[in-house]
Design brief:
The complex is a heterodimer of chains A (313) and B (298). In chain A, 75% of the residues lie in helices and 3% in strands. Chain A is mainly α and 313 residues long. In chain A, strand 2 and strand 3 form a beta hairpin. In chain B, the strands form two sheets. A two-stranded antiparallel sheet of chain B has the order 1-4. In chain B, strands 2-3 form a two-stranded antiparallel sheet. The chains are: A mainly alpha (313), B mainly alpha (298).
């Protein structure tokens, strides 16, 4: 059963990679940005499973993007792998310091404190003239050691990178959720003190989860930066982080695939809402958010389980 | 000397503006345990209502001095309508949910209200400078200050005093405090908690709208002002301790003065300073400066 699913997933990944060559560029662009956001949201889901909602994932989303932009600009490189590595290292450095402080906080304080950190980055970037202040700056289109593919009017490389990363990261996090360390998250959400009594260091578990979430957010930011070709401090603004929480809530935390699929649905919904009514698309999103909180408290993914239950009975 | 005076005046003006916004936010959180993101929209609605009414009022050539009453009236009416509408019409069905879920609920309301504002008032800026310029300016040690800003300080002091007095010296205030302290116990002793919730939310909405209406004459009212403001109010409230009105007062002073200091000495650090101070306070006092200690549930 499991191996069968794996083969299906592999086929899906390969199909998506080749589909990029024929589908219109706006669509592969949308999927790339959506998957990049999906990675950020996946990190958020890891935290949410432990009962922590970060309103500041924009910090790493933005840091990853700026790390890529600044590094490629300064060292005159457009190597995709190298730039992704830079984003990862950047997130590791920041989160291992900030995480020490944040892993002591819970609930609303965790949410507010993480938001404060992302706003600090926003405040710094808006005033840094060297990094383009509030306008930001342009980022190079990446290559794979000098090799690149242009199809239907755009660089296919970031699209492929997003798909490979999404499947790879998805598989790793899927394993992680099954591991004792991943399981500990849900235990912490249910009752932290009992977890402590069982001999597990809650703070350490959360610290590691925080770092993983940061790395994923940074990767998402790096992909976005290279795809869009432009970055600005808005990526660290609290509304960006709010959007990630929105997607996480909409998708649900039930499965690794939920945030990735949810991000694509969200981008489609947003594009659609924006096209239909440019002045009320936020309202449509707001109503969708409230409807999901009321009718599907466990997110869209719980719909699948409900349907499966219905089919069985 | 000039610098110290400028920092002091700017800081206090900014602090009083911050306190006006944060007071409603912290009151609602204290009583209802809802960190209300839509508070930014209340502010924006108050500003729009005030600015558009002032525009109509002065176009009609009416006596200028009554325009201040108009601002208060605009805040009262818009706060009452929006507060009642949201609390009675929607929020009361959501009580009992997790605090973090309630943040998201109010985030949804914020998104809806942001576009409602655009639908009602359009996307063009509104100006209502008349009440601002009417009061003239004062010269002090070669620096020029707007008298309207001094009035803002006075109004804030009055609001703070009224809030303190009604919370600590009246029967209704005592009941409110009992709900803040322990909702279930207060309910068991016969306090109508639902009614208290409605009243608190409406008062909070009014305070938000009032802050907006008073700010409107000094700024150009454009879409998105609520989004900028709410995050500042969060910083103030978190520094002071969520739910504490006195804490919000001190938090507003800390943020206002440190921002003024930064603006005059190192302008590039303006935004950084606000959240830097917030981070610093939270690092040493995670619950904020004046939070009431709570028992840890096992």
């Amino acid at each position: 059963m499991m191996t069968k699913n794996r083969i299906y997933l592999l086929i899906l990944a390969v199909a998506m990679i080749f589909a990029g060559l024929v589908m219109p560029y706006w669509f592969s662009f949308l999927v790339t940005v959506a998957l990049a956001k999906g990675l950020v949201v996946l990190g958020l889901v890891i935290l949410m499973r432990a009962g922590l909602v970060s309103f500041g994932q924009g910090l790493y989303y933005c840091a990853g993007a700026y790390a890529v932009g600044a590094f490629s600009d300064y060292f005159k490189t457009d190597n995709l792998l190298l730039l992704l590595l830079v984003a990862i290292v950047c997130a590791l450095v920041i989160s291992s310091i900030v995480g020490l402080l944040l892993s002591r906080y819970r609930d609303i304080f965790f949410a507010m404190f993480s938001m404060a950190f992302s706003m600090i980055l926003y405040g710094i970037l808006v005033k840094s003239a060297a990094l383009g202040s509030s306008d930001g700056f342009n980022v190079v289109s990446p290559t794979f050691f000098g090799w690149t593919v242009h199809a239907s009017g755009g660089n296919m490389l970031t699209y492929w990178a997003a798909i490979v990363l999404a499947f790879l990261v998805g598989a790793v996090i899927w394993r992680y959720f099954k591991s004792p360390m991943g399981m500990a998250g849900e235990a912490i959400r249910e009752n932290e003190i009992r977890v402590e009594y069982l001999g597990i260091s809650v703070q350490k578990v959360i610290y590691i989860k925080y770092i993983i979430a940061a790395v994923l957010a940074s990767l998402g930011g790096a992909i976005t930066a290279m795809t869009v070709g432009h970055i600005d401090p808005e990526m660290a603004y609290w509304t960006t982080s709010g959007e990630f929480v929105f997607i996480a809530l909409m998708a649900g935390t039930g499965h690794v695939a939920a945030p990735l699929v949810g991000a694509i649905i969200f981008e489609l919904l947003r594009t659609f809402a924006f096209q239909v009514s440019p002045y009320t698309w936020q309202m449509i999103l707001g109503i969708a958010l409230l409807a999901i909180i009321i009718f599907l408290p466990n997110g869209l993914w719980s719909l699948k389980e409900k349907l499966m239950k219905g089919a069985k009975s | 000397m000039n610098l110290a005076l400028a920092v002091l005046v700017d800081g206090v003006v900014y602090s009083s503006w911050l306190f006006l916004i944060a007071a409603g936010l912290t009151l609602i959180y204290g009583v209802m345990k809802i960190l209300n993101m839509a508070h930014g929209s209340f502010y924006a609605i108050g500003a729009y209502a005030g600015a558009s009414l002032i525009g109509v009022y002065f176009a009609g050539g009416n006596p200028p001095w009554a325009s201040y009453l108009l601002l208060i009236g605009a805040a009262l009416v818009s706060g009452l309508i929006i507060g009642l509408l949201i609390e009675r019409g929607f929020l009361r069905f959501m009580y009992g949910r997790d605090e973090v879920v309630m943040i998201l609920v109010t985030y949804g309301i914020l998104l809806i209200l942001e576009d409602t504002i655009k639908l009602l008032w359009g996307v063009d800026p509104y100006f209502a400078y008349q009440p601002y310029t009417l009061l003239g300016r004062t010269k002090m040690y070669g620096l020029s200050f707007a008298n309207y800003d001094f009035m803002l300080i006075a109004v804030t002091a009055l609001v703070a005093l009224v809030l303190w007095w009604s919370l600590n010296r009246t029967r209704a205030g005592k009941i409110l405090q009992s709900v803040i302290h322990d909702r279930e116990m207060a309910g068991a002793l016969g306090v109508n908690v639902t009614k208290i919730f409605t009243i608190t939310f409406v008062i909070g909405a009014f305070l938000g709208a009032f802050a907006g209406a008073l700010t409107a004459p000094g700024i150009s009212v454009v879409p998105g002002i609520g989004i900028e403001v709410i995050i500042l109010a969060f910083a103030v409230v978190v520094i002071g301790g969520l739910g504490s009105v006195g804490g919000a007062f001190v938090g507003a002073l800390i943020v206002g003065l440190s921002r003024a200091l930064s603006v005059h000495l190192y302008p590039d650090g303006e935004l950084f300073v606000i959240y830097g101070v917030m981070g610093l306070v939270l690092a040493f006092r995670p619950q904020g400066l004046f939070a009431i200690a709570g028992a840890r549930k096992i």
